[in-house]
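re: ur question from the group chat, yeah i did fold both. here u go
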Amino acid sequence: MLYRRKVQVVGGSTYTVSLPKEWVKSVGLRNGSEVAIEVMPDLTLRIYPGGKEVERLELESEVEFSKDAELSVARLVASYVVGYRRITVSCPTCSASQLEEIARWVTERTIGLEVVEKDVGYVVFRCLVDVSTLPMAEALSTLTKLTTRSMEDVEHSINTGDQSSLDEVLSRDNLIDKLYLYILRQLNQALLGTVSYSSVGLNSIAEAMYWAMIVRFLERIADYVASIAEEAKKLGPGRLVSVLRYLKLLHEKYDEVTKYLLLKHGVEELARFGKLMVELRNVEAEIRRDSTISGTASAESLLRISAHLRDILELLIDIQVLRNLISSTLAQA
């Protein structure tokens, strides 16, 4: 909804505008309440309740489980990702054990969603974590460390023939998926304005789109590492010896690319990004030429890992250019 107001000058130097009465009532402001005002990159203003005494809107969603279980699960996950705090799952035809299974599935695959109420035909979840509990930077760091550990375990298994660590890789992939969904939830909350973008760790709201894509590529890389682990379990680690060299190369590139995720990038770093992209393309060319792995599922996984690392580098460059644009815009204001 668009409101128009005239700017008034009070005391000769203070510029004021009145707040829409409907909005003030809806967010629970009163005389003396605090509001936060953020200057956005395009020089517009974002205003939201800033005092601790103001209760934020309770975002609730109801998901009715139907015969199309896959669609119902997708809607449930989407409700979590977009930022609902309270999610009611309704299933009148479900038995107590089926509801228990839904509750177990949800809590195992999300961070923060816990059962707060359950009765015949329904179960209620509430998200008990927020950006202060697990900041995006920490979640990102944990995600990349887990993926690095999975790469190490697959390399160890191929080197030694020991398959015990492969199950750990597959189990760890579920935790990586949870972190991925949790980070998406934080980014959506910033976009919707339920949290400030700075509390999520963004320099501007415009960065949310880029970080969502980066996190998606990180999650996909972990999936491809898990796919190599699955093939090693199926065929035996010894059958993937030819894959080991390329996995180690990509492991090194992964560590180098991810170390830049939360750092400020200057001219030297951007130049290194270009060289890294060339190096990754060279690795891909080697994989395609290697007749010992050509056409295998593992070769395809390796190629996908490399391509996604290049995607991440391109997005990091995009973010840096965006930050430069915002800085120059603010400097000209």
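okk and heres the other one u asked abt
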Amino acid sequence: MESELWRKVQQEDYESQIARTSCTAEELRSLLDCEAYFNRQGMPTPESSQTIIHYLIDEGLAVAEDDGMFAVTNMGALLFARNLEEFPVVMRKAPRVIQYEGRGRISMLRSRTFASGYAICLDELVDYIMALLPSREVIVHATRSTQTQLPALAVREIVANALIHQDFSITGTGPLIEVFADRLEVTNAGAPLVDVMRIVNDPPRARNEKTAALMRRLGFCEEAGSGWDKVVEACEYYTLPAPRIETPQDSTRVTLFAAIAYRALTPEERELACYWHTCICYANRTAATNQSLRARFGLPSSASAQISRLIHTCIDRGLIRAVDADASKKNKRYVPAWA
């Protein structure tokens, strides 16, 4: 019976494949946090195990076996496992957070692996990361508040993306979050499915469609296509350097950087920020200007000439173009070169 079940799912997508077989109803409830599933949807947990299992099967988190037992799917384990170590086939997908001293990887301060399912641990995971980031007290309009090094919205979005859009078929690795003194790096298995330079404006593509759809419905991530926009906009709002996407060895690494003065940015960092700003403006049905770029970098009007030089460099590099080439210098608007 078990071998027949395995043969049945071998041709199915990773999410529908089986993480554990031959579970009784009681074992299924002990392995998966059913209460978390219902709480996230604002529903009371049914008293009947039969009703609970009906929801799990309907959601694709479990399947019924022919002998009256039940099996947990990979998606069920990844999202709602009380302990991923109970599911050897997916246990390496548990997210790990490492904090280092300074800017390099020589001295590790602490490491923690989150062993529960993504839908259970995501909030705690993000809170833990935010607590590791440097913070300072600021006073705005006589109100004291704490300002962290990086915006929580951007941190949450890139962590959620790493969990949801990783390539599950790559074995032996899981999402890795590394906290440095000056940046946050989030790495997951699998290269992006879209051109990283078009990630703001191109139609989204989901590698794990069932997981992404359920996590969106449960309110853990943004609607398809809006996540990276919000990351870029959050970095711009806090005048942080542009986020960076890299694809080392069939993986995706997203880096968020702490605030740095414009004069300390490298030419590449300035050009990338200019490009993403232009992409965001275009996505919002407008166009970038010298003034909007000064605001993006937190620069005064006296820095107009600096920004003009940056704009010309980005045009020469084929990153952006002028919408109206004959317009006066003050009124020129810019869009991505591919637009």
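fwiw on the second one: Residues 94-257 form a domain with the Heat Shock Protein 90 fold (CATH 3.30.565.60). The first strand starts at residue 18 and ends at 23. idk if thats what u expected
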